[in-house]
Amino acid sequence: MSPLASTTLTDVSRVGAVMGHVRERITRGGLGSGARLPSIRRCAQSLGVSNSTVVEAYDRLAAAGEITSRRGAGFFVAGSRRPVALAEQVPPVEREIDPLWVMRHSLETGDDVLKPGCGWMPESWMPTDAIRRALRAEARGPGKALTGYGQPLGYAPLRAMLARRLGEREIMTAPNQVLLTDSGTSAIDLLCRLFVRQGDTVLVDDPCYFNFINTLRAHGARIVGVPFTPTGPDLDAFARLAAEHRPRLYLTTGALHNPTGASPSPTIQHRLLGLIQAHDMMVIEDDIFADFESDPTTRLAAFDGLDRVVYVGSFSKMLSASLRCGFIAARPEWIEALADLKLATTFGAADLAARVVHRLLADGGYRRHGEAVRARLAKARIETRDRLNATGLSLWTEPRAGLFLWARLPDGQDAVGVSRLAMRAGVVLAPGDVFSVGRRAGDYLRFNVAQSPPRVFEVLSQAMAEAAGVRLPRPPSLPA
């Protein structure tokens, strides 16, 4: 029986479910402008509802201007397609806390709100003085650096430096195989424009970085999650899903996986690359946390030689989110196609940001900053791990570097419910299911160790107790 025919649904909710089904097909491209909708009888049979339910749903969609009726011919998609609204792709009951909710609250709330669920370091950890010096130095340079569009591939000296840095990680490339972008996110968006067509299947890790899900939804992709383990993707599941769904692309994190902090083993990487080749897939390897490692592990792009794997990097996490500087390393012919897309969508390059990043890399300031951050994060990981254990959560794995710890709530507690309660006390958490395509992480939370002072765990303990129905005395440090 169709889930729409469940006896737990009222007639009103069945009408809404039919409307949602039709809207999803229109939004994701299954039904284009002018396409004929299934007949009332056929739609009712396929969804397991009554004819009258479909009639009411079609009438409401027609009243909203989303479909039109033609006497004797049936119902058709209206001439103008509805815009892609990412929020509408989340079930309404879950809309309060989803990937976009976490991002908005992390960015919009003030400094008085604690943000262990965010994905960046505190402002006090960033090299602001070095950035100011670099900006002043660039301001004294040629006026074109301050006013021009920049080259299509991006600032040449930075691309040459990035090619050398990638070579140190055994990713052999040349400057003409590097394209600068405004960020790691914009790099992935550009790659999706090149590789993904509406309706294409894309594999992602489950769990994965939640903005992968947002970006792929915006491009109309069909997203399939591959269970992720402490040593990398589950290869048996990967092979089965690749054979079943024939994906166009696999989008994954490099080392220091987001959200779990795990790093795939070399053995898993080798076997994974064999499956990728066997199923004729392309890969986007997002490695924006590369510089958080003291001893880098070999990346998939290095094993592959940038044949099927496209490598993405960024300086937003280690250096500055405001400078907006990322990059793509790929085959020369793909770089040329991406440069054309970049010109078509953004025209220029953030030349000033690229020059500042280049200056910071060249004078040694970035290297010194990285060393200090890695030492500081090592201390914060231990402190956060101990606080999580004391609060009753258990780590999924213990990462050797990076920002994140992936921890499980005790007794199967609901992370969304705990997050709602914590938000009332001024703490933004990141519940596990916002990272999971298959909604498999309902009792997990991701913690940013650089953003997790002791008060976070006071609030977390109180929220867990309230969610479990246990009313603890509220600590004096918490608001009433």
Structure commentary:
The protein has 480 residues and is α/β, with parallel strands linked by helices. It has 3 domains: 3-83, Winged helix-like DNA-binding domain superfamily/Winged helix DNA-binding domain (Arc Repressor Mutant, subunit A, Orthogonal Bundle), CATH 1.10.10; 93-124 and 369-467, Aspartate Aminotransferase, domain 1; 126-365, Type I PLP-dependent aspartate aminotransferase-like (Major domain) (Aspartate Aminotransferase, domain 2). The chain has 17 helices and 14 strands. The chain has an 8-stranded mixed sheet, with helices on both faces. A 4-stranded antiparallel sheet has the order 11-12-14-13, with helices on one face. The longest helix is centred in the C-terminal third of the chain and has 27 residues, at 365-391. Residues 5-10, 90-95 and 472-480 have low confidence and may be disordered.
Number of beta strands: 14
The average pLDDT value, as a whole number, equals 88
**What is the helix content?**
40-55%
**Biggest sheet descriptor:** 8 strands, mixed
Which regions are unreliable across 5 or more consecutive residues at pLDDT < 50?
Answer: 5-10, 90-95, 472-480
Name the CATH superfamily assignment of the largest domain.
Type I PLP-dependent aspartate aminotransferase-like (Major domain)
How many domains is the backbone divided into?
Answer: 3
Task: Spell out the blueprint of helices and strands.
Elements: H1 11-27, H2 40-47, H3 51-63, E1 67-70, E2 74-77, H4 99-108, H5 128-139, H6 144-147, H7 156-168, E3 178-181, H8 184-195, E4 201-206, H9 210-218, E5 222-229, E6 232-233, H10 235-245, E7 249-253, H11 266-278, E8 282-286, H12 300-304, E9 309-314, E10 326-329, H13 332-345, H14 351-362, H15 365-391, E11 394-395, E12 404-408, H16 415-424, E13 430-431, E14 444-448, H17 454-467
Parallel strand pairs: 4-5, 4-7, 7-8, 8-9
Antiparallel strand pairs: 1-2, 3-10, 5-6, 9-10, 11-12, 12-14, 13-14
Helix pairs in contact: 1-3, 2-3, 5-14, 8-9, 8-13, 10-11, 16-17
